[in-house]
Structures are given as C-alpha cells and as structure tokens.
C-alpha cells in the first residue's frame, strides 16, 4: 500500500511574484512567474487552449515536474496581496507550511525538549484540530508538520491524519518511535509524506540527549524502512555534539534508504535552556567547515537539508555559500511558515512559544498572518540583517537574513 | 514565462519550510551570488505556429538527453572513419585480384 498523497489535489496559489504550484505527491513546489502561472492555471482548468510552440514546451516541462493526471483535482487559492513591496526578501501571501503541535504529552521527558513536553501534557481537542485544519486548508497551506509532544500519543491520531487528507493537506510527522505498532505503521504509511526521528549522536553518547538509546533509534528506522515509509533523520547540533558530526554522518551513510538527513541548530528554549550551548559559542569557521564536509559526504547518496536557523553557517564560510544562493533560506518564520501550539496560539515558529501572534479560536489564520504582530516579527527580520555591520557588505544578506532574530544560535565567519 | 525555483521533498520541521537542498545542486557552482536556473524555458523560436490542444494530448515525444547530441556526433565520426578504413581494405583486395588476373594473362 502506497501513501495516498498522490491523490490529494494540486495547489495553485497566487503570489506577488506570480504564484506557486504544489504537488502533494512528492511535495514538489514550483515558484512560477505571472505569465507561467496564468498558463498553468488555464491548462489545469482543462479547457481547450490555443498554445504556441513556446507554451507547449513549457507545459511539457511542467508535466515532467508534477504527477499529472487530467482527472486530478486542483485547488486554486488567491489569498490577497503579498508583502514583497515592503521587504527585500520574499514573504509569501500565506504560509506554505504549518507546524502544528497537536499535543504536549510525551513520556520521554528529554532534558533538552524545547517544547517542555511531559507525561501529563494536554492534547488538542478534535474540534480544535478540525478548526486548524479547515483554516489552513482554506488559506492554501501546502504541508503540515505534526509534532508535539509525541503526536502518536494523541488518542485520535488516525482521525487527525485522515482529516488532513480530507482537507487536501500533506501531513508529515515527527515521532520518538515509542508507539510504532504495526497498526500505527500502516496508518502512517497510508497518510504521511515523511516521518522524522531525532538522532543527536551515535552509540552511548546519545544517552546524554535521550534515554531511549541508540539501539531504539536504529530499530525505529528499520521498522519504518520495513513499511517503506519515507524516513527523515533530524540531527540537532549544539556545542556538545557538533564534534561528533563525522560519526553521525557515517551512520546516515550506512542507512542509504533514508529519505533525508536534516541538520537543525540547537535552540536554548523550553527545557533546553541550560542543557547545552548553541553553535554560536564555537568558532564559526570550524562550524561552517563541519557542515560543509557533512553536506559533501552525504549529498551524493541522501537528500540533505538544513533548517533556516543554520543559514549564517551555510552562508558565512569565506563569504561564500556552499549551496546555491537560490537554495539558501534564512528564517522562514512569518515568511513561509508558522507554528501552532496545542492551545491554537499561532507563533512564528515552535521554538518561540511566548511570541504569540494570535489565536485561531479568535481570529482566522489570514487575519493573524496579515496582522500587526506578524508584521512586527517581519520587521524584526529586516532589522536583524540591517543592524549587523558585516551583513551590510554581504550580498547574501537577503537570503541568509543574518540568522535567528530572537536567539543567538549560530555565527557566520564572513568578515 | 519561467519556473523561478523548484523545491522538492516532504517537510517535517517548521524551521525548514524549504529544507531540502536539491540533489542536482552542484556544490562546485554554488558560489556567492551565482544563480542557477533550474527549468528555464528555451527562448522563443519566433514561430507563430498555434495549436489547439486538450491537456491529455500533450504527450512528450522521445527526446535526446542533453549529452545525446555530442555523443551522437562522435559516434557518426567514428563509424565514418571505420567505414573508410574497411573500404580502403576492400578496394586494395579487389585491386590486387584484378592486378593478379592481369598478370596470369
């Protein structure tokens, strides 16, 4: 049984620069200029079109990039004016991704948990979840990252995932792997795009981070593999484990079936405050070199990614980015992504639970996205790269955005 | 009319809305300020040919991959040289035979 994401509707959404075409089958996300968007929209509306040679070629290119079926549903979204005129960086007219913490319950009690989840944490109610999913679906959000807490502890997890599909949204999920029964694996396979599991170190060193142990992580990855579920390994890097990056990379290379490996910056948030030190406390050149080496070792075999918080380390080494500028993404909070707490508070990202932009019980996502607190956060992003002297001479500043505007997570070594 | 950027891959983390660096990105050209064009449409050939089509009529015909054309040219040259070589051998043999027959007479 394959995941049903290929049955979800394509999303076509207007933006200031033109628009986006999103294919949930494999989460292909195409940014198109105005002319291209108009052509693609007309083509997908399935009307008789008069195409010249150039347009026919372009439609062929589009068909190569998506899973095309003329019977497939298409969701057309116009969310209103974007924010491009106000900023030098891209701000989408609505989020493309929402990170929804459907519960605060988790039995692991990890010392570094940024969400401060605990065994008596609360679940979001099904009514609230329905409200969130309806809201983000209407607003054209393409993917949802379901987290917690441990989302598999939510008593209605199957219903939540089914509802995501009903609303035309791809659900992805992060888990600690403690509750992966055969029934649960079948549910995840049926509905989810990808499943993430965290791995902060290998062997006995992992015990510092999570008491489940390295063997449990390996078993979880194998379980997911046996059900052919796309599996992402999330590696949170702090001053304590970045020196062990080679071991983590070697483990990932031994697991070529992985869907991807993503490196995340450690955030001193929640219980994580005081647990470890962020990468900004280390020599910036060494951090950049380590990340670059990891990228080169992995990228031939496995999909590699970095969270936007690591952008300065990607951008900074010798003033050059080791990935194309086009794919260098600074903080995505309030530009293309949003976080939602179990109480339906909307936050820029899940690492900033106190920075509340609004609550979905009182306001729609559109009102919150266009509201003053979200605007202030974007201004913070703008000021972040403007106030740093070294950013002023760096031509990557509108991609990197100078790092997290709230926490000092990682430094860049551009001088 | 163009694709400005293509991203692909399921996203499991809010701080990584476009987290996956495309596998085709060559680190060698990932230098400062250099933009890569992923799927740009070829320039307008100037033709005004128009066709009315339904979406499912747009079948992609067989197309040579990017490396196909140079490989094909090299192949043709090699075949041509080999052919000339054998032709020269045949002519030489035939000439010898004709010459031999003339000698017998």
Helix content of chain B: 25-40%
Alpha-carbon distance between the termini of chain B? Answer: 79 Å
- Overall mean pLDDT of chain B: 66
The counted number of beta strands of chain B is 3
Multimerization state: heterodimer
Considering the chains and any ligands shown, give keywords for the structure:
heterodimer; A: 415 residues; alpha/beta; 4-stranded mixed β-sheet; 17% strand; globular; B: 105 residues; alpha+beta; 11% strand; rod-shaped
Task: Walk me through the structure.
The complex is a heterodimer of chains A (415) and B (105). Chain A is of the alpha/beta class and 415 residues long. Chain A is 31% helix and 17% strand. Chain A has 13 helices and 15 strands. In chain A, strands 12-11-10-9-8-7-6-13-14-15 form a 10-stranded mixed sheet. A 4-stranded mixed sheet of chain A has the order 3-2-1-5. The longest helix of chain A has 16 residues. The radius of gyration of chain A is 21 Å and the shape is globular. Chain A starts with 9 loop residues before the first strand and ends in a 15-residue tail after the last helix. The model of chain A has no long low-confidence stretch (mean pLDDT 91). Chain B is α+β, with helices and mostly antiparallel strands. Chain B is rod-shaped and about 95 Å long. The relative contact order of chain B is 0.07. About 37% of the residues of chain B have low confidence. Classes of the chains: A alpha/beta (415), B alpha+beta (105). Chains A and B meet through strand 3, helix 1, strand 4, helix 2 and strand 6 of A and strand 1, strand 2 and strand 3 of B. Strand 3 of chain A pairs antiparallel with strand 1 of chain B, so a sheet runs across the interface.
Which SSEs are present, and which pair or pack?
The complex is a heterodimer of chains A (415) and B (105).
Chain A: E1 10-15, E2 18-23, E3 28-33, H1 34-44, E4 49-52, H2 53-65, E5 74-77, E6 97-101, H3 126-138, E7 143-147, H4 157-166, E8 170-175, H5 182-191, E9 195-198, H6 214-226, E10 231-237, H7 245-253, E11 260-265, H8 284-298, E12 304-306, H9 311-316, E13 337-340, E14 345-347, E15 358-359, H10 365-369, H11 372-387, H12 389-392, H13 397-400
Parallel strand pairs in A: 1-5, 6-7, 6-13, 7-8, 8-9, 9-10, 10-11, 11-12
Antiparallel strand pairs in A: 1-2, 2-3, 13-14, 14-15
Helix pairs in contact in A: 1-2, 4-5, 7-8
Chain B: E1 3-8, E2 20-21, E3 50-53, H1 68-104
């Amino acid at each position: 049984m394959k995941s049903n994401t290929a049955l979800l509707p394509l999303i076509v959404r207007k933006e200031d620069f033109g628009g986006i075409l999103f294919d949930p089958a494999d989460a292909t996300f195409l940014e198109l200029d105005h002319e291209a968007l108009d052509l693609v929209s007309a083509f997908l509306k399935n009307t008789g079109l008069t195409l010249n040679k150039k347009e026919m070629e372009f439609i062929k290119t589009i068909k190569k990039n998506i899973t095309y079926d003329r019977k497939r549903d298409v969701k057309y979204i116009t969310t209103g004016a974007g924010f491009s005129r106000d900023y030098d960086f891209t701000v989408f007219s609505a989020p493309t991704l929402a990170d929804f913490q459907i519960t605060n319950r988790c039995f692991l009690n990890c010392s570094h948990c940024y969400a401060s989840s605990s065994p008596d944490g609360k679940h979001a109610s099904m009514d609230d979840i329905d409200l969130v999913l309806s809201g983000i679906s209407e607003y054209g959000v393409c993917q949802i990252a379901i987290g917690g807490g441990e989302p598999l502890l939510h008593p209605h997890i199957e219903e939540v995932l089914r509802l995501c599909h009903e609303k035309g949204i791809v659900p992805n999920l992060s888990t600690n792997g403690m509750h992966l029964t055969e029934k649960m694996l079948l549910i995840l396979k049926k509905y989810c795009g990808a499943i993430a599991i965290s791995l902060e170190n290998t062997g006995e060193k992992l015990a510092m981070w999570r008491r489940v142990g390295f063997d449990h992580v390996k078993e979880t990855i194998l379980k997911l593999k046996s059900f052919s579920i796309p599996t992402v390994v999330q590696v949170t890097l702090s001053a304590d484990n970045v020196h062990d990056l080679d071991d983590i990379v070697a483990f990932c290379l031994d697991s070529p079936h992985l869907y991807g490996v993503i490196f995340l910056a450690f955030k001193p948030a929640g219980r994580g405050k005081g647990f470890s030190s962020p990468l900004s406390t280390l020599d910036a050149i060494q951090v950049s070199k380590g990340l670059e080496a990891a990228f080169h070792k992995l990228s031939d075999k496995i999909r590699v990614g970095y969270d936007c918080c690591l952008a300065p380390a990607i951008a900074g080494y010798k003033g050059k980015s080791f990935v194309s500028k086009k794919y260098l993404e600074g903080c995505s909070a309030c530009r293309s992504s949003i976080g939602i707490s179990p109480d339906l508070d909307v936050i820029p990202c899940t690492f900033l639970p106190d920075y509340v932009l609004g609550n979905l019980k009182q306001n729609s996502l559109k009102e919150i996205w266009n509201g003053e607190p979200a605007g202030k956060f974007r201004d913070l992003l703008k000021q972040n790269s403007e106030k740093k002297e070294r950013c002023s001479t760096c031509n990557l500043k509108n991609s990197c955005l100078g790092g997290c505007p709230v926490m000092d997570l990682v430094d860049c070594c551009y001088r | 009319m163009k694709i400005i950027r293509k991203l692909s891959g399921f996203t499991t983390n809010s701080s990584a809305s476009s987290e996956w660096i495309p596998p085709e990105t060559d680190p060698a050209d990932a230098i400062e300020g250099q933009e890569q064009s992923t799927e740009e449409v070829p320039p307008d050939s100037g033709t005004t040919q128009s066709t009315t089509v339904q979406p499912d009529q747009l079948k992609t015909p067989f197309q040579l991959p990017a490396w196909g054309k140079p490989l094909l040219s090299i192949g043709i040259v090699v075949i041509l040289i080999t052919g000339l070589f054998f032709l020269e051998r045949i002519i030489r043999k035939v000439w010898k035979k004709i010459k031999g027959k003339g000698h017998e007479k």
